[in-house]
């Protein structure tokens, strides 16, 4: 089983009420906070900790970031380069992943950033590829509107091609470091890439030698048809949001078939749904905690601010109890997809804006495993053994407590079942994932 810790470099986890939980730390502007969380996950032998990112405050709702700031709906997003650099120095085994956009960065910048991180961490870097989702991000980069859906994926495909060429612009044996002769590296082992395409012209070579992993692994979370094809072409880890095991099994089978059709080994690509765990010393304690997370900490307007951000649609024009009708569904393909997922999750067709908002900001985005450590381990084991997933991206209800409880209580139960490692094998993230180091292209 692959386990990934899902993080935000900011005031909340993906659960937007996490900062309000009584034991949650408010040290999100302190590097030691992130280092300690990563050390906890490393003690639990997690494959990877990776950070989500956005390049703007949620400001689509009411055309303002006011409500996001007022209610703490992810207004804080630190630069991930500094955060992961600090974590790299505080850990030695766990993989380190960051989200970087193919829409607002350049291939050279991203290739250099992750090559540097891979070297300085001893081969533990991973890149979560996103195409970015809304106009707020575009406007922070001097663009009036974000690119259309298909254009973003066309750009992303060429972006990956250019990055891979840059990562391969040095041969593995290029460095000589001969003090006597004065020869530093083999000149003919470092090449310009001279990439010229629709979106990018990149000369190269990269100023960073080929890395311990050759190429850092790729995470990707596209759920549309185009996004799933992109994952089939490029991803080593596919981040999903399937609400139930039956939906997940179908997605798993379909995606693995798509990967095979793309000429890649489907067994080498990990399908990882995002999941919440609420564990208690007794079942009653766990259930009571779940009820608190569902009903006590997320302000409705924080929910709507986040929902507006991800769908690039202003829900400020609606009341919470407005019915999700055809006009709203026609406004965004994202709303249609979300509404269908919520219908499946809730088991009913009559949805309101409140239902959509709750799905985005509380604990309804993926599977939720609740109970004692034994019960949680059994639920996770069922998903894994029945081929609904290859592991999980675990989102925290609060920090650092949610990950501390999981590592202390649940990890030993997964290890007893023989479905999770007791020790790391190897040093690099590719070692953890059982991925071969790619040959230079």
Automatic annotation (TrEMBL):
State a single Gene Ontology molecular function. monooxygenase activity
Check the record and name the Gene3D superfamilies matching this protein: Luciferase-like domain
Please tell me where FMN binds in this chain.
Answer: 53, 99, 149, 153, 223-224
Keyword Flavoprotein present in the record's keywords: the answer is: yes
Statement: the UniProt record of this protein carries the keyword Cytoplasm: no
Which stretches make up the Luciferase-like domain? 26-383
Family label? Belongs to the NtaA/SnaA/DszA monooxygenase family.
Q: Which NCBIfam families match?
A: FMN_nitrolo
Can you name this protein?
FMN-dependent oxidoreductase (Nitrilotriacetate monooxygenase family)
């Amino acid at each position: 089983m692959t386990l990934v810790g899902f993080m935000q470099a900011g005031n909340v986890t993906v659960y937007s009420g996490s900062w309000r939980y009584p034991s949650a730390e408010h040290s999100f502007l302190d590097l030691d906070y992130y280092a300690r969380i990563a050390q906890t996950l490393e003690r639990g032998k997690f494959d990877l900790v990776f950070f989500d990112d956005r390049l703007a405050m949620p400001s689509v709702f009411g055309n303002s970031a006011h409500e996001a700031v007022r209610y703490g709906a992810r207004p804080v997003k630190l630069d991930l380069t500094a955060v992961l650099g600090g974590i790299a120095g505080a850990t030695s085994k766990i993989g380190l992943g960051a989200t970087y956009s193919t829409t607002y960065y350049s291939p050279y910048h991203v290739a250099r950033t992750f090559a540097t991180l891979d070297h300085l961490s001893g081969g533990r870097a991973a890149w979560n590829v996103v195409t970015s989702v809304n106009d707020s991000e575009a406007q922070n980069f001097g663009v009036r509107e974000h690119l259309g859906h298909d254009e973003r994926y066309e750009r992303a495909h060429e972006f990956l091609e250019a990055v891979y060429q840059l990562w391969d612009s040095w041969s593995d044996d290029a460095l000589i470091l001969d003090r006597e002769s004065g020869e530093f590296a083999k000149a003919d082992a470092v090449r310009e890439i001279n990439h010229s395409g629709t979106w990018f012209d990149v000369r190269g070579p990269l100023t960073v030698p080929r890395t311990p992993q050759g190429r850092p692994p790729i995470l990707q979370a596209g759920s549309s048809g185009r996004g799933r094809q992109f994952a089939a072409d490029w991803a080593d880890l596919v981040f999903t949001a399937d609400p139930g095991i039956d939906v997940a099994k179908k997605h798993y089978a379909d995606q693995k078939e798509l990967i095979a059709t793309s000429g890649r080994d489907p067994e080498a690509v990990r399908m990882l749904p995002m999941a919440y765990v609420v564990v208690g010393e007794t079942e009653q304690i766990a259930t009571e905690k779940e009820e608190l997370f569902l009903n006590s900490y997320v302000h409705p307007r924080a929910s709507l601010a986040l929902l507006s951000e991800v769908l690039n649609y202003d829900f400020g024009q609606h009341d919470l109890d407005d019915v999700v009708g055809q006009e709203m569904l026609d406004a965004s393909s994202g709303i249609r997809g979300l509404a269908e997922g919520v219908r499946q999750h809730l088991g009913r067709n009559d949805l309101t804006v409140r239902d959509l908002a709750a799905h985005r900001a509380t604990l309804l985005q993926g599977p939720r495993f609740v109970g004692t450590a034994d019960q949680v381990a059994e639920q996770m084991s069922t998903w894994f053994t029945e081929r609904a997933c290859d592991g999980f991206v675990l989102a925290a209800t609060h920090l650092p407590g949610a990950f501390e409880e999981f590592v202390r209580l649940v990890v030993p139960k997964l290890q007893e079942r023989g479905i999770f490692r007791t020790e790391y094998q190897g040093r690099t993230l590719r070692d953890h994932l059982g991925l071969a180091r790619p040959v230079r292209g």
